[in-house]
Design brief:
alpha/beta; seven-stranded mixed β-sheet; six-stranded mixed β-sheet; 14 helices; 13 strands
């Protein structure tokens, strides 16, 4: 764990401040949940917080309390820039390096004259003045809960804050099934329920709000599933044409890679998604056991993340990106075999 400048930050927050809260590009449940939870908390403390997201996030997260107050940097650029320019400090949540917000927003943040405070659980964080980093914690939402607790304000957690935090922890742990879900995580979840998080409604809002086209897209993704039993590996592909055919919306591929990982005997899974707007292939990696997809992605696909969940990208065509991926597997065969007892 890295806890840097905490007492100074606590003193800094003793006075009302203009604060901007930013999550990573293509925000997921943990990024949105932690940002909105911190927003509600800082508001209760008398600050003037603003959440700025780099771009759109999935429709199944729009119901979260406070979502309507967020600015999108790519769409509401003048409002976002104004909030950033008028802020006394920026909180960076659920990402470890400025490039994770996208090129345009990164350029803005690199010119920012004031300080950053980072709360994040990814490996190899950038150096900022105030930092709370812990790669052992399952989610940034759990870290925000613990951050509020360290400030002595856990009793300020109300139903809105609890709902946002529960959502982020639930989504980042795969509904509490990943290895990073500890007994402390469950104790925090219990407290959030006691403070007003309605676990059944949250689960329904996130996981039971599929469109018809999203289910058809999932069917197409699963029909593209390929299994490489020699390497205990499976992967899925989705092209731009396939996405258009089923009216792809932001968030429609969230969690699809986990279907590949759910196969008996598979410990390494990937999904390759063509992104015509950015001119690249976006990749998500998942693993079981000791095989680090963080290292794999950093070494070969310009990415990173956690040991068992990471992302990457490729500027190659879909076919060439998949060929590169499969060509790497022989050198990792021993690691994959030793990673997990299936």
């Amino acid at each position: 764990m890295i806890l840097k400048g905490f007492e100074d930050l606590k003193t800094f927050l003793d006075k009302p401040r203009n604060i901007v809260i930013i999550g990573h590009r293509n925000p997921d449940g943990d990024a949105v949940g932690s940002s909105l939870a911190l927003y509600h908390y800082l508001n209760k403390k008398g600050h003037n917080p603003t959440v700025v997201v780099p771009n759109e996030y999935p429709e199944f997260l729009h119901w979260l309390p406070g979502s309507e107050t967020t600015y999108r940097f790519d769409w509401q650029n003048s409002q976002s820039q104004r909030a950033i320019n008028n802020s006394d400090i920026i909180f960076l949540l659920d990402f470890n390096a400025l490039h994770r917000v996208g090129h345009d927003m990164q350029k803005t943040l690199e010119k920012y004259p004031n300080d950053f405070a980072m709360i994040d659980h990814h490996q190899q964080p950038d150096d900022v003045k105030y930092m709370y980093s812990d790669v052992e914690i399952c989610s940034t939402c759990q870290m925000v809960y613990q951050f509020i607790d360290m400030l002595g304000d856990v009793d300020l957690i109300d139903a809105n804050i609890a709902t946002c935090l529960y959502t982020g922890i639930m989504t980042d742990t795969g509904s509490f099934r990943f290895r990073s879900t500890t007994s402390k995580t469950h104790r925090i979840i219990a407290d959030l329920i006691d403070r007003g998080a309605e676990n059944d409604k949250i689960h329904n809002n996130v996981y039971d709000a599929n469109s018809y086209n999203r289910l058809l897209l999932l069917g197409k993704a699963l029909s593209n599933l390929q299994i490489l039993p020699t390497y205990k590996t499976a992967y899925i592909t989705l092209t731009t044409e396939e996405k258009k055919r089923f009216d792809f919306q932001k968030g429609d591929t969230e969690g699809v890679v986990n279907y590949a990982l759910s196969l008996k005997g598979i410990i390494f899974a990937a999904i390759f998604i063509e992104d015509a707007d950015q001119g690249l292939i976006k990749i998500s990696f998942r693993s079981k056991g000791k095989f680090s997809v963080n290292k794999f992605s950093r070494n070969h696909f310009e990415g990173g993340g956690h040991d068992n969940a990471a992302g990457g990208k490729s500027n190659l065509s879909m076919a060439k990106a998949v060929t590169r991926f499969t060509s790497l597997l022989p050198e990792y065969k021993k690691e994959l075999e030793a990673s997990y007892e299936v």
